[in-house]
């Protein structure tokens, strides 16, 4: 598929009426800096794909690191879902945001933002990652074709690796589409909720980020003998760090350098990363090309 798929993304984004429901991001008490000014408090949004309080706690080293490197106070924010995060970025209520690839693509259609860094799983490696299609060991699913007639759990509707990528795998490799009644689907919110739904038998199968699946196995949260991998996806550019384009250029340079030169183990531990590599908007065209496979339910964003 070619670049015109962007129009499909634009149509999806234009139709979605987002509700601004934030955790830690006020409804108007925080003054917003004028264009071209460095904010007194840098509002940094993290992914709402796992427990919010745990995400904030795990990223306290990031907060401290950015305050030291950038010379401003930092407020870490976790929104209730991807739609809230997109809306907050669109309205200028966030300065930096760590999006999933699909939520970035949707946000970029409405907000004047730019990606600048993405996670590297190994030092010097490309900033890419994979999704994984999972199944309950008792479901009888060993290949994507076996998903026919089964129930599949997805994460947030705007999630890349817990919705878009695994749904694309079913459509393109097994010719299975939920709109044709080939399987049933349910959205359970976050990656960890997908894995638990599969483990508990509330869904036969599901899709999520491979790194998150591997971490949940290491932590003992899920049993790999129960939640088995069916197929991994091809690599896609990893979750991008983004910033408002209207920030001062010299400040944006400092932000880029803070991430691209980051070698603080305490900060990187929360991301299970070796570092961050540079990315551009063009790197996410592959996600734009897959977007027409989704029929995003407006109710999920209202």
TrEMBL record:
GO biological process: transmembrane transport
Signal peptide feature range: 1-19
Keyword Iron assigned: no
InterPro entries linked: PhnD, Solute-binding_3/MltF_N
Top-level taxonomic group: Bacteria
PROSITE patterns documented for this protein: PROKAR_LIPOPROTEIN
Domain Solute-binding protein family 3/N-terminal, chain residue ranges per copy: 41-278
Keyword Signal: yes
Coiled coil start-end: none
Family statement drawn from the similarity comment of this UniProt entry: Belongs to the phosphate/phosphite/phosphonate binding protein family.
Protein name from the UniProt record: Phosphate/phosphite/phosphonate ABC transporter substrate-binding protein
Species, as recorded: Gordonia hongkongensis
Species classification: Bacteria, Bacillati, Actinomycetota, Actinomycetes, Mycobacteriales
Gene that this polypeptide is encoded by: phnD
């Amino acid at each position: 598929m070619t670049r015109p798929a962007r129009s499909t993304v634009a149509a999806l984004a234009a139709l979605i009426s987002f509700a601004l429901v934030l955790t830690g991001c006020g409804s108007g008490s925080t003054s917003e800096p004028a264009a071209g000014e460095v904010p007194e408090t840098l509002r940094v949004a993290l992914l709402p794909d796992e427990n919010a309080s745990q995400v904030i706690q795990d990223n306290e080293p990031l907060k401290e690191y950015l305050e030291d490197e950038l010379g401003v106070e930092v407020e870490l924010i976790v929104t209730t879902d991807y739609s809230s995060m997109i809306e907050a970025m669109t309205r200028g209520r966030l300065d930096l945001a760590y999006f999933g690839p699909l939520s970035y693509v949707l946000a970029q259609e409405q907000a004047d933002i730019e990606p600048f860094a993405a996670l590297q799983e190994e030092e010097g490696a490309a900033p890419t990652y994979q999704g994984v299609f999972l199944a309950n060991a008792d479901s009888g699913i060993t290949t994507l074709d076996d998903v026919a007639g089964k129930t599949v759990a997805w994460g947030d509707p705007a999630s890349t690796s817990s919705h878009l990528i695994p749904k694309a795998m079913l459509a393109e490799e097994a010719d299975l589409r939920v709109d044709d009644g080939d399987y049933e689907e349910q959205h359970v919110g976050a990656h960890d909720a997908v894995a638990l739904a599969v483990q508990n038998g509330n869904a036969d199968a599901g899709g999520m980020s491979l790194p998150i699946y591997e971490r949940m196995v290491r932590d003992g949260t899920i049993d790999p003998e129960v939640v088995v991998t069916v197929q991994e996806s091809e690599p896609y550019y990893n979750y991008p760090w983004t910033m408002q384009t209207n920030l001062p250029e010299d400040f944006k340079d400092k932000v880029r350098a803070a991430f691209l030169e980051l070698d603080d183990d305490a900060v990187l531990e929360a991301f299970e990363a070796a570092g961050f590599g540079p990315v551009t908007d063009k790197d996410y065209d592959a996600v734009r090309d897959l977007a027409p496979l989704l029929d995003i339910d407006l109710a999920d964003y209202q």
